Amino acid sequence: MQKAGSHKKGNQKITLDPIAGMQDRTPRQQAVLVVKLSIPAILAEISSIIMQYIDAAMVGSLGADASAAIGLVTSSSWLLGGLCVSAVTGFSVQAAQFFGAGKTDKAREVFCQAFVMALGFGTCLSVTGIVLSPRLPYWLGGEADLCIAASRYFFLFSCALPATQLRQFAGGMLQCSGDMKTPGMLNIAMCMLDIVFNFMLIFPTREIQIFGKSVTLVGAGLGVAGAALGTALSEVVIAVCMLAAACRRFLPSFAFRKEAWKPDPTYYRNAAYISIPVAFEHIVLCGAQVALTFIIAPLGMASIAANSLAVTAESLCYMPGYGIGSAATTLVGQSIGAGRRDLAKSYAWLSVFLGVGLMTVTGVLMFLFSPYVFQMLTPDPGVQALGVQVLRIEAFAEPLYAASIVAAGALRGAGDTRIPSILNLVSMWGIRITAASLLAPVTGLFGVWLAMCGELCVRGILFLVRLWRGKWLRQNFALS
């Protein structure tokens, strides 16, 4: 009789600590587990945003044109990056449920199937982005001077997509097995690498003063392209490390079972059931961001730059929510796999309460410190003033935005992705885009962010209602 949470294959063992023994936990212990699993993911998300802050500050120091060039293709970059995440979600949810059910060999088979898919899908996305890169900034309504730099940025970003896809795949598999620490630490390392590469690639060779002594820093002076190349190089390095960690955890002697690598229609069908709605959700959200780019572009370069930097600044507030959402996916997925729907519901609500509380605090901090944030991100006074104005609007939406983020993570662990994708479609296109298109000509960027704030509040309420009704607790791939 095997002990819950610890499953052997020959001499190989996968240990699910700290998920192991989750069925015997008191409500207090459950809350502690939610926090414990969330912390590494939150730290990784925060470090990622700090990296974006530093990226934005480095590029912003080159002038508003450089910030606007990146801002022009940011939503398109998010779209491709979001598709990378959605492609592996269906497999990682299955693996989490198999772990909860004690079917470790099945989880390993899912890993093999997902590995092959990630390699192929990441390559296809990369080719698509490379082909689109010369014309995309022009289609988005950018000014001719911005489009050349934006095209180079998007081209280099697209070249790194296979590495991005493999990193997301390996990280997702580690998380679903209960290992939040390894992907968290590696993502933090990626941020540090990105900073180092950016210093070397964005700026030209220059002299700096350290303790009164002149030191020469060698640089490539690539500007906006250097920012993209630095990110791409850090993605490649960490993708290799993440894959190595995932393979050590999942594929000891099991790797030689050739049949595990052959496409299995059952796993792909289950993955499609989860991933297609998630992909649709990313298309809806990022398509809405592209539409907002069209709405904001006529407002001028200052508005484009302020919007891009404000999005980066706000992300420091909501990334902790995504970290907690990742923990919720793991906990709910394994609880569903173990046949404990009551436990899945408990973990879902505990995660939501933690996310709302944390993002309420970060929203208050964002409101208070937004002027200092923008002083760091750009030297342009006009962009600073406009950015602070719109960022403070968004602070009021953070609690309900947290509810939508974490609830979506919990629902995803149960395989419930279709209804959430519909809710996002209605919310984004029915409220945000409609209101922004009406308000932007009258109130400028202020109106766009006012529409965003209102939409996020409505979205949070919709997701809380979905979670409360409980219809998401019915799917269990580990028993199908």
What does this structure look like?
The chain has 480 residues and is mainly alpha-helical. It contains 15 helices and 4 strands. It has helices at residues 27-60, 64-101, 104-132, 136-139, 144-159, 161-176, 181-201, 224-250, 265-296, 301-337, 341-377, 381-394, 398-413, 418-443, 445-469, and strands at 6-9, 12-15, 204-210, 213-220. It has a two-stranded antiparallel sheet. A two-stranded antiparallel sheet has the order 3-4. β1 (6-9) and β2 (12-15) form a beta hairpin. It is globular and about 60 Å long. The two termini are 23 Å apart.
Keywords, please?
mainly alpha, two-stranded antiparallel ribbon, 4 strands
Largest sheet: 2 strands, antiparallel
Give the assembly state of these chains: single chain
Helix content: over 70%
Q: What is the helix/strand order?
A: EEHHHHHHHEEHHHHHHHH
Rg, alpha carbons: 22 Å
Strand order of the largest sheet: 1-2
Strand content: under 5%
Distance between the termini: 23 Å
Q: What's the number of extended β-strand segments?
A: 4
Secondary-structure-based class equals mainly alpha
Low-confidence stretches: 1-18
Shape: globular
Mean pLDDT level = 83
